[in-house]
Amino acid sequence: MFLPDEILDYIFQKSGKNKGAIPVELKISGHLFQQHLVRYKGEWRLYINTPMLKAANKSVGDEIQMGIAFDANERITEMHPKLAKALKENEKANQIFLVQTPSLQKEIKRYINNLKTEESIDRNVAKAILFLLGKERFIGRDGIDG
């Protein structure tokens, strides 16, 4: 969704920036959500996802009312213990992981953290290591040629 210029200006002023992803907190139907305001194809956009719509009892295309504010709290994505163990056991993969952009590191950690079964965690941790070593696709990307 696009936000009015007055709201964008307020968020830019509070965050002290108008570039890169800007963390915001949303309140929709009494539920708080963390999200990022991002610039895409020259326009600032706020993506409202399915859990947010469900909380508001809305569907795609419906009008919603929400509150939005800059979120100054640091957001840290913890590393799953199985991924940490695999990286510790494979020094080359770990070195490659550590030199990747913070956003790619976060994407890998977040993907593993959101898996539900131990089997899928184990399978995807192995795929993540192979991805870092340039031997397999993972998270929709070709392997890194480290």
**Helical stretch count?**
6
Main sheet attributes: strand count, strand direction, barrel closure? 4 strands, antiparallel
Q: Kindly state the number of beta strands.
A: 4
Q: What's the overall average pLDDT, rounded?
A: 92
| Radius of gyration of CA atoms, rounded to a whole number | 18 Å
Structural domain tally: 2
* Biggest β-sheet: strands ordered side by side in the sheet: 3-2-1-4
Helix vs. strand class? alpha+beta
In whole angstroms, the N-to-C terminal distance is 38 Å
Order of helices and strands: HEEEHEHHHH
| Beta-strand content estimate | 15-25%
Morphology call: elongated
Helix content: 40-55%
Uncertain residue ranges: none
Overview of the molecule:
- It is a single chain.
- The chain has 146 residues and is α+β, with helices and mostly antiparallel strands.
- The chain folds into two domains: 5-70, no CATH class; 81-132, no CATH class.
- Helix content is 42%, strand content 18%.
- It has six helices and four strands.
- The chain has helices spanning 5-15, 50-55, 81-89, 91-98, 102-113, 118-132, and strands at residues 22-28, 31-40, 43-46, 66-70.
- Strands 3-2-1-4 form a four-stranded antiparallel beta sheet.
- The model has no long low-confidence stretch (mean pLDDT 92).
